[in-house]
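Propose amino acids for all 325 sites.
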């Protein structure tokens, strides 16, 4: 258990500094370029752990699995993380960190509709409390950054959908989270690379600029990489994306899925404090109130998950006793 808590601590620290590191690297890299580089590096860091998990499992990469990884990689890297990168351009790192952490809340209704999971009263209460917290952070009375907030919420919703896709893949093919992430990050990176190459086509670049999407035109691949920017790039790719997810999955193995999910419950509180210390981003009363409500909502969902797990275990024990007698 002690080892599991250490893994949770490292994963929480790396994930909580993600938006800050991206904000610091934003001046040197195109948002799409940075997205591509960090997930490519992350997939390489995750690959040894993924191969270790696959060893002796009889796993084979057929057409069905390739198509699945292409789809999951597209949803994660190309769709969700592109919106995430753009959100950091337009909004404060602390705001993006808090709103993106709500992806765990959005999983609740998606799991009900796509995975037929039961909606409990506790899950609905968690969703309601977290949504009130989000409204406090957004603060409709003083809504000055609609673009950044909208992009953050789209990133959170689409990442929740990626999570549902991952669950369906796990149920269908039997692989775990580390294999899912490693292959999805790799395929998503190559899909993004294809789009980057397409953005360099003259007619495509001209059209993107004409509709106000200059960040998506003539996207560089290696430009901006220098001795000054390599440390930030390594931190994002190796530590945040690669080791962050590695420690998260190792924590899941050492403890449980519900205990490991504490990473995303602590992040909404820790990330704004780090953003205040490193970037000098102010914490308003509305933001602090929103953080508190989201943490309460997350704890309710954690309690609900643990309660459901205990009920399942007790039912299994009862069934086993019946079979024995």
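Proposal:
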């Amino acid at each position: 258990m002690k080892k599991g808590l250490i893994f949770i601590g490292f994963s929480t620290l790396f994930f909580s500094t993600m938006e800050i590191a991206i904000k610091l690297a934003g001046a040197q890299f195109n948002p799409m370029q940075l997205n591509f580089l960090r997930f490519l590096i992350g997939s390489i860091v995750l690959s040894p752990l993924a191969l270790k998990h696959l060893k002796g499992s009889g796993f084979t990469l057929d057409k069905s699995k390739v198509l699945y990884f292409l789809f999951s990689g597209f949803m994660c890297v190309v769709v969700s993380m592109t919106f995430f990168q753009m959100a950091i351009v337009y909004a404060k790192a602390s705001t993006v960190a808090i709103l993106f952490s709500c992806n765990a809340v959005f999983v609740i209704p998606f799991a009900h509709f796509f995975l037929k999971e039961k909606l409990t009263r506790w899950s609905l209460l968690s969703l309601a409390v977290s949504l009130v917290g989000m409204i406090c952070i957004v603060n409709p009375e003083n809504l000055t950054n609609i673009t950044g907030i909208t992009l953050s919420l789209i990133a959170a919703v689409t990442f929740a959908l990626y999570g549902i896709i991952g669950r369906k893949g796990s149920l269908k093919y039997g692989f775990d989270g580390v294999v899912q992430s490693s292959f999805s990050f790799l395929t998503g990176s190559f899909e993004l690379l294809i789009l980057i190459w397409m953005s360099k086509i003259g007619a495509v670049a001209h059209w993107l600029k004409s509709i106000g999407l200059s960040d998506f035109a003539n996207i560089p691949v290696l430009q901006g990489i220098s001795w000054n920017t390599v440390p930030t790039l390594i931190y994002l790719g190796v530590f945040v994306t690669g080791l962050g997810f590695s420690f998260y999955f190792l924590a899941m193995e050492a403890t449980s899925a519900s205990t490991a999910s504490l990473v995303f419950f602590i992040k909404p509180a820790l990330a704004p404090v780090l953003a205040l210390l490193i970037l000098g981003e102010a914490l308003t009363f509305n933001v602090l109130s929103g953080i508190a409500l989201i943490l309460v909502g997350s704890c309710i969902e954690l309690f609900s998950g643990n309660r459901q797990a205990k009920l399942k275990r007790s039912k299994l024990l009862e069934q086993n006793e019946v079979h024995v007698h």
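The CA atoms of residues 36 and 190 lie 8 Å apart. Residues 2-324 form one domain.
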